[in-house]
Each structure stands twice: as structure tokens, then as C-alpha cells.
Amino acid sequence: MSRSLVCRGCWEQFRLPIFIRTPLAIPFRMFGLRPSRMNPNLCSLCETMFGKVMGKSQMVLTTTILFADIRGYTGFSQLLESPQLGQLLGRFYEECGAAIWRRDGIVNKLIGDAIFAIFNFPLRRADHVERAVEAGVDLQRNCLAMKRSLPPELERNEWLGVGVGIHTGEVSLGEFGQFCRDFTAVGPVVNLASRVQAAARAGEVVLTEEVYARVRERYPGAETRVCQLKGIEKPVPVRVVLAATAPD
């Protein structure tokens, strides 16, 4: 992934040239402005000062939400020492992050062995749904390659894999909480994306119908499945894309 010299979020939103690399970034670092943990082409201003940047603490915005989670992590963790487990998680985060950042998404949260990503903010993209699905397929392939690089006795564990769930729609985005303010997205769209991810098997990218409607032509053979999701009364129809057979 190419690394920008200026924060792309500040530039696209406000045309502010906030340098985050090269010696030109030194004056900005004196004020605490560094590359963001959520996306290396954004700055910490985008990450920690949402209210000041946007002029309000929260806003409603259409985004695409992606959750990715390691399957079989609990059993797998019993086979490794803590340092090895930490290295594995670090590689998982890196492989997921690379796929998400290449499509201009942000990694909003690392939740144990899971990742929560947002597309279409602060980098606005008309094709954010398509980008999220491409990221989901790409990170599955990255993680499969990572699994193949493990020692044979670990790589053979068929229950070790990654499940991905994606949904799109309006969310409340901004800073939440008083005691410990946190930038994130909340709402039914986020909840459904999380539930869909929980229904995904290792190697699957599970899409809601709203997402699949935008990528139908690219993935015409996606399996139809009906899932009974936790906390949702009615069964939810989804489409399943397998990274192993998805087009490049």
C-alpha cells in the first residue's frame, strides 16, 4: 500500500495539508499529530478529535461495516505459549489491516481476536460497499496464506480460520461516552454486521442482501443462506462468498 505524505482525511475533508511523513511532519509531531492507528494514511486528528474536526460530536452517515474474527481461536490458543499467540494475533491484525487500508477503510477496533472496520469515513468513497467486500475477500486470502506458513502441526488444524461479515446502511458515527470518550460507529447496522460475522464459517465472507445487491455481478455464484441470528427475531437471508473461489 502506498503511504501518503499528508493526512488524506484532513486533505479530502478540509484541504488542510497535515504532513505525517518526511521531515515536513516534524512541526506537526510537536503538536501530537502522527499517523493514525486506524489507517496509516490518516492522522491522529482524524482519530481522536472527531468533534473538533467535524464541528459536532456525532453524525449520521451511510457506511459499510466489516467484522472479521478468528475461528477456533480458543482451542488454538491452548497449543501456543503466550508470546507465540501474541505474534499470531499481530500477524492477523496486520493482514486484515493491509486489506482494509488498501480500500481506504479504517480499523476502528481490535476486539480480542476480532477486527471492526468502517468504510466511507473519513475517506468518502462512492463504491465503499464494493471496497469492503474486496477487502473481506483479500483478508481471507491473506490469512489463508498466513495459516499455510505455520508449523505443520498447527496448520493442519482445520478449525483454524477467519469468518467475515459485512453490512451497509446508516450509522451514528462520532464520539460516544463521557467518562472515556471513544470514536466509533453504533446502531442496528453495526449490530447486524456483527451478528452476520458470527454466522460465518472459516473462509467465508457473509454479506447481507443490501451488500450483495451492490456486488451481485462480480460474485454471481454466491450461496444463499438463511440464518437465525442471536438477538434478531426473524431469520436473515444472506449471501456467502468463498475467498477460495472468488474472482480476483
Q: What class, by secondary structure content?
A: alpha+beta
> Quaternary arrangement of the chains shown?
single chain
Biggest sheet record: 8 strands, mixed
Q: Which CATH C-level class of the largest domain is it?
A: Alpha Beta
Number of β-strand runs: 8
Q: What is the helix/strand order? A: HHHHEHHEEHHEEHEHEE
Weakly predicted, low-confidence segments: none
Percent helix: 25-40%
Which word captures the global form? globular
Q: What is the alpha-carbon Rg in Å?
A: 19 Å
Number of structural units classed as domains:
2
How confident is the prediction overall: mean pLDDT? 85
Beta fraction: 25-35%
Structural topology:
Elements: H1 8-14, H2 26-29, H3 44-48, H4 50-54, E1 58-71, H5 73-77, H6 82-102, E2 106-111, E3 114-119, H7 128-148, H8 152-155, E4 161-176, E5 182-186, H9 188-199, E6 204-208, H10 209-215, E7 223-227, E8 236-242
Parallel strand pairs: 4-6
Antiparallel strand pairs: 1-3, 1-4, 2-3, 4-5, 6-8, 7-8
Quick structural gist:
By secondary structure, the protein is of the alpha+beta class.
Word description of this protein:
37% of the residues lie in helices and 26% in strands. The protein has 248 residues and is α+β, with helices and mostly antiparallel strands. The protein has two domains: 8-48, no CATH class; 58-242, Nucleotide cyclase, GGDEF domain (Alpha-Beta Plaits, 2-Layer Sandwich). Strands 1, 2, 3, 4, 5, 6, 7 and 8 form an eight-stranded mixed β-sheet that branches. Helix 6 packs antiparallel against helix 7. It starts with 7 loop residues before the first helix and ends in a 6-residue tail after the last strand.
